[in-house]
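Can't paste images in this forum, so I'm doing it all in text. The chain is below; anyone willing to post the predicted structure tokens underneath?
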Amino acid sequence: MLEDGIMGKKALPIRILIGFVLGIILGFAVPSFAVSLKPIGDVFINAIKMLIVPIVFFTVALGIANMGDMNKLKRVGSKVFIVYVVMTVVACVVALAVAWMVIPSDVGASLNLEKFTREVKTPTAANFFMSLIPDNPIGAMAKGNVMQTLTFSIFVGIAMVSLGGEKVDAVKKVFTQAADICFKILNMIMEFSPIGVCALMAYSVGFFGAKVFGALFSFILADYLACFAMFFLFMLLPVVLYTGANPFKVIKGMTEIWMVAISTTSSAATMPITIRVTTDTFKVPEWLASFSIPLGTTINLAGAAVWKAVLIILVGQFYGIDLSIEQMVMTVLFSSLLSIAAPGIPGGGIVMGVIMLTLMGLPHDIMGPIAGIYRIIDMIHTPLNITGDVMGTLLVAKNEGVWTGSDLNNSME
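Text version of the structure:
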């Protein structure tokens, strides 16, 4: 009975919310005790960080390998890939701009914060690209070097695609099983997330006081505004102008997908219905949709890109760290790369958020409070991810001459 109720898998967000609220209550009621709970929260964060390297290695390599024959990417595939990458990069830039305007520069000034003295990473372009290649990939993994692990996994994935067929079937099976094991461990850890979130939230409120909520409110507002700006200005508008599709019919056609995406907060779980709606409602040829949508689920995560870019601005403003133009460029680059590598599972963004902060050399103490409200922002991230897949498919379909906006307009009369 409990498995179908509050203790069931589907009720995990509710349990996290309960832990979130309980942490707030403890922080206000018994602040000294609440602060002492920080080690429990740290254990939870460290347990997640433990999976960063294996998740990056297995999922990225497997995602590339599952693309199949590289010849598919020469014409249509290359167009889809370019559109998706451009969307992701634009999402980062939009998010940085919106967050910079919305999140106050003194958001953490009145809080009782320790001065953050560690140098924020600002690698030059040459040093950055040189640092991507590990001289020892096993050593890079052992040291927790995420970018070098990511680079190595990309090479492994490309090699698997190049070899193809039976030569790599056994390796792909092993990688699939290894990735499944990693996500199973992650699911096990997430079962304890209500306790971890409670401890981290209790510490945050007990140590920082009520003023911490100002930072969270501005974070949520910036995140939502960036997602809406990305959708209307850089997804819907280009499709309407280029294909002639009726904007209201595009929104109506997307409604079913959005409802599933909001309820599951999983791009991967939404993918089957996304393909069906793209072919049945939008009238895109099935051969294109069945290729572009799964590819988009892997590499076109505009919502994830928005989240990580806004997160960097929040942490910078929260701790009073001045981020230079070079660091902003690195933010766009890192966020784009990690969005392509992000797992399409509920809550996967929390893991990627920690990775992003680690790459930038920024503190991640605030991830505790954010984990408690992550479901709220993930409810806008996932629909934006899926929307980018569909809008990108429509743009490519029009460019290939296999679809026009009138196909949608006529089908929904």
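Residues 99 and 222 are 5 Å apart (CA to CA). The chain has one domain: 13-411.
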